[in-house]
Each structure stands twice: as structure tokens, then as C-alpha cells.
């Protein structure tokens, strides 16, 4: 049962306290942004998180649980009972930044292009605020700074190492700043929230030759191009049109010089769908079709298919509770349910299969999408995010 008796006053206090911390949160965010690190390599990042958490009154800090770069803070651990976990992600993505900010990435080819820097700053702010209200806590609150969300399944590793039992987890909450949702608006939904997300690697082997005599070789790029076109045919001509699935090849590698037909080519891509049956059908068709297309062109090809992230499922009762709290925090007009699930992958899904969980989006109002070299989160949203997470820590 949600206690709403002091809600308006509490929201006002939390927002005010968050605004008092804005300079510190922006500083954290910019430090994280300047030194982005890829999954399982978040050494500088985790050190900064540890330093910030250790300066907060009454927060117990645990370093390296399950993954050497993970950081966990616990407030109210003496309260016992099922804990509420608020999780944010730590890792960056392999993108060359093009924002032009004075605090742009110092590391070539790496960038916080998904907002994880802002997520961490907001949760550190929430931890600071909650420490001021620790006498109001109903249960332990665990702040989980999780490495390796971007395709490497850090959540799975954390779970396998016994996180849920070690910290007596009762509920889990995750949030993400999200572009193309109006600024400051809150979105979530019950049940199916994200697509399952798999990885595909196709390797093609041909016969190298000089560009002037292509007939003496077997061009793996031609084979790869035919495979990419044929794959789209699976989606548009073999799959039931009422089903949803998308395959995108985002990386291709072949050759060392412009005037030589290379010996091999590689394609890396991803499948997104909401149905395991659809996944199994497409996986089977890829494994059957790709070698045959290569054979028709006198080449050899193989498929490495990795089942990566499951679909994220929001617990209906917890989500209903969170939405009710969101209406009291943001206002009725700022809160709405999503029209449907999204095709993004999110490793928070692993938690959602084990304990009641709710994943939420907070709109940035920007048109630049996630994983763009120009992606950014408006820094004046970070205090709102921090106050909201602190509110959940007290009320959820």
C-alpha cells in the first residue's frame, strides 16, 4: 500500500535538495563523460563511483561484486527484509564523439552515447538525498552501478554470482533517459517492454585475386551483399506479416587494399523480435540459407548465432505502483503508458525474469537518438532524475 499522505511536501523537499546538488551531479556527469570505458573495463569510472559513494553518510560500499568493476552501495542495510534495488549502467559504446563539448571524450573511439554517464550521476545524487532521509526508509535500498550493459550481459554475470540472494532483493527498478519523448515526461508499461536482442556473425570465404582479373577469384563481398538482401527477404516474404522482427547488419569487414578482391568478408548484425518462436524460425532459416547462397557463388559461409538478451518484462503490480507514484511526482499530464514495447535490447531483462522489476523512461525531448555521435542528455534533467529515484527509494 502506498503512503501518499505527505507526497506534495516530500516531492517539493526532494526536488529542492536535488537542485542544491546540481553542481556536484553535473561535475560527476562530465567526469564520467570525459573518461568513457567499454564493458568490463570501467576502471576509472568505478573508482569515481566508489569515491562518491564513500563520501555519503551511512552508505556501505561493496566493490567488485561479480564483476571487478561493479560498485554497490547499500543504505539501511540494518533494516532487514527484502531490499529495493535501483540499478544504473556504467559502460560506454565504441563511437567517436562529435558533440564538440569541452568535456568531450578523452578516449578516441569511445563515448557515453547512451546516457549512462547521466544515469550514474542521477543515482549518486539520489543516494546523497536518501542519506538525508534514512530514518524514513522502509527497507534497505541498494544502489547498483552495473558494468557491461551494452551487449555484454553484465546483468547476467551479476545474477550468476548470487546478487539477488546476497542482497535479499525484493524489487528492482531501472531507468533510462530517452530521446524523442517530450522533455521531462515519464513513460513505462506493464508486461513486455523490450525485444529480445541477439547477435549474428556471418563469415564468408572466397578466393583472393587482383581487381583486374576478378574471374580468377571468388569475391566474398558479392556473396555478402547477396546474403544481406536475401536476409531481408526472410523478413518480408517468409515471416508472417503480423509478426515483428528486424535484422540489421551494423558492421562489415573485408579487404586490406582497394585493388585486391579479398579472401574473406565478415558481417555482424542483430535480430530484434518479441517472439522466441520468430527468433527460432529466423535462426533456422539463416543457418540453412547462408551456406547455400555462398555455395551458389562458389564460396563458403558460416553463421554464428548468439542468443543474447531476453525480452524485458515489467511486473504488472510493481509497474502499477510505480505509475501511481510517478503521477504524484511528475503530475498527471506528464505520465503516460507507452503505446507498445520497444525493439531496443536491455540487459535489465535478466533481472526482470527473476524478481518483480520495473524499467522506466524519462524523456529528454531531443531528436538525436541513442548511440549517435552527437547524443546528449540535458544536464538540467539530472536533478529531476535524482529526486525521482530518491522518491522511489522512500515510497516504492
UniProtKB/TrEMBL annotation:
Pfam families: M20_dimer, Peptidase_M20. Mn(2+) binds at residues 114, 116, 150, 176, 371. InterPro entries: Amidohydrolase (IPR017439), Bact_exopeptidase_dim_dom (IPR036264), Peptidase_M20 (IPR002933), Peptidase_M20_dimer (IPR011650). Keywords: Hydrolase, Manganese, Metal-binding. Its EC number is 3.5.1.47. The Mn(2+) ion enhances activity. Its cofactor is Mn(2+). It comes from the Bacteria. Residues 200-290 form the Peptidase M20 dimerisation domain. GO terms for molecular function: metal ion binding; N-acetyldiaminopimelate deacetylase activity. This is Amidohydrolase.
Amino acid at each position: 500500500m502506498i503512503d501518499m499522505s505527505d507526497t506534495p511536501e516530500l516531492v517539493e523537499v526532494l526536488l529542492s535538495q536535488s537542485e542544491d546538488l546540481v553542481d556536484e551531479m553535473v561535475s560527476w556527469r562530465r567526469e564520467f563523460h570525459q573518461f568513457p570505458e567499454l564493458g568490463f573495463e570501467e576502471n576509472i569510472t568505478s573508482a569515481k563511483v566508489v569515491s562518491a559513494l564513500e563520501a555519503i553518510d551511512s552508505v556501505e560500499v561493496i566493490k567488485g561484486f561479480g564483476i571487478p568493476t561493479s560498485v554497490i552501495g547499500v543504505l539501511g542495510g540494518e533494516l532487514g527484509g527484502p531490499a529495493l534495488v535501483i540499478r544504473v549502467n556504467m559502460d560506454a559504446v565504441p563511437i567517436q564523439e562529435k558533440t564538440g563539448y569541452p568535456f568531450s571524450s578523452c578516449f578516441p573511439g569511445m563515448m557515453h552515447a547512451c546516457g549512462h554517464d547521466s544515469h550514474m550521476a542521477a543515482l549518486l545524487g539520489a543516494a546523497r538525498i536518501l542519506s538525508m532521509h534514512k530514518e524514513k526508509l522502509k527497507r534497505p535500498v541498494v544502489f547498483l552501478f552495473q558494468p557491461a550493459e551494452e551487449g555484454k550481459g553484465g546483468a547476467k554475470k551479476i545474477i550468476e554470482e548470487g546478487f539477488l540472494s546476497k542482497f535479499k532483493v525484493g524489487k528492482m527498478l531501472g531507468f533510462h533517459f530517452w530521446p524523442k519523448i517530450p522533455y521531462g515526461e515519464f513513460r513505462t508499461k506493464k508486461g513486455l517492454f523490450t525485444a529480445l536482442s541477439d547477435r549474428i556473425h556471418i563469415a564468408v570465404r572466397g578466393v583472393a585475386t587482383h581487381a583486374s582479373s576478378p574471374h580468377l577469384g571468388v569475391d566474398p563481398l558479392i556473396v555478402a551483399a547477396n546474403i544481406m538482401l536475401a536476409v531481408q527477404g526472410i523478413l518480408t516474404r517468409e515471416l508472417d506479416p503480423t509478426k515483428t522482427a528486424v535484422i540489421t547488419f551494423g558492421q562489415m569487414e573485408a579487404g586490406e587494399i582497394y585493388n585486391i578482391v579479398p579472401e574473406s568478408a565478415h558481417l555482424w548484425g542483430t535480430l530484434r523480435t518479441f517472439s522466441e518462436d520468430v527468433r527460432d524460425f529466423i535462426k533456422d532459416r539463416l543457418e540453412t540459407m547462408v551456406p547455400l547462397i555462398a555455395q551458389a557463388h562458389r564460396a563458403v559461409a558460416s553463421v554464428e548465432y548468439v542468443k543474447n538478451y531476453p525480452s524485458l518484462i515489467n511486473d504488472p503490480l510493481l509497474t502499477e505502483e510505480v505509475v501511481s507514484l510517478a503521477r504524484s511526482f511528475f503530475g498527471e499530464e506528464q505520465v503516460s503508458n507507452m503505446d507498445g514495447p520497444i525493439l531496443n535490447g536491455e540487459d535489465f531483462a535478466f533481472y526482470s525474469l527473476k524478481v518483480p522489476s520495473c524499467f522506466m523512461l524519462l524523456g529528454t525531448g531531443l531528436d538525436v537518438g541513442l548511440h549517435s555521435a552527437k547524443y546528449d542528455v540535458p544536464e538540467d534533467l539530472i536533478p529531476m532524475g535524482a529526486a525521482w529515484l530518491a522518491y522511489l527509494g522512500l515510497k516504492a
